[in-house]
Amino acid sequence: MQLSRKIFAVLMCIASLIASHPLLSQEFSKSPGSSAVDVQGVRHHWSDYDRKMVPWIGDAIYAPRPQYPYEARSKHQTGSGLFRITLDLSTGTVAKITMIKSTGSPVLDNAALSAFRQWRFRRGRWKEIDLPITFTMTR
């Protein structure tokens, strides 16, 4: 009984860290084009939710920020793309990634693919997730 309370406390801490993660809350929470297919096969769109964070991003356990490669930054390359992540329902790991729309730069596409391959979600909730990404230069 004592151990399960400790595990629950740890999981709650992790959940609160994810909910406040700047990458998730700012870049992917309500991005136009973001959608997900649940385990029943129903597609959910970002525009269906009034909340700040869509549920599939809230279910992310590990979501490293895509790196902006030096090669692309030095050439001032920017671009927006859309990637479909297919999940393994039993583990929540990424089983496959499909590029729906390229960023226009192979370097930026590879950076997004590399990061998205590492993402992990709560298992048994989502079959696939469409994630838009934009690489921009700021001063």
Keywords:
5 helices, alpha+beta, TolA/TonB C-terminal domain, 139 residues
CATH superfamily: TonB
Cα-to-Cα separation, first versus last residue: 53 Å
SSE succession: HHEEHEHEEHEE
Helix residue percentage: 25-40%
Q: What is the mean predicted local confidence, pLDDT?
A: 82
State the helix count.
Answer: 5
The fold-level CATH name is TolA/TonB C-terminal domain
Strand order of the largest sheet: 2-1-7-4-5
- What is the class in the CATH system? Alpha Beta
Proportion of beta-strand residues: 25-35%
Shape: globular
DSSP strand tally: 7
Q: Would you tell me the structural class of the helices and strands?
A: alpha+beta
Number of domains: 1
* Main sheet makeup: 5 strands, antiparallel
CATH architectural grouping = 2-Layer Sandwich
Enumerate the spans where pLDDT stays under 50 for 5 or more consecutive residues.
8-26
Outline:
This protein is α+β, with helices and mostly antiparallel strands.
Describe the structure in your own words.
The protein has helices at 2-20, 22-28, 55-58, 70-74, 106-117; strands at residues 35-38, 43-45, 60-62, 79-87, 94-101, 120-121, 126-135. It is α+β, with helices and mostly antiparallel strands and 139 residues long. The protein has one domain: TonB (TolA/TonB C-terminal domain). A five-stranded antiparallel sheet has the order 2-1-7-4-5, with helices on one face. A hairpin with a 6-residue loop joins β4 and β5. It is globular, with a radius of gyration of 16 Å.
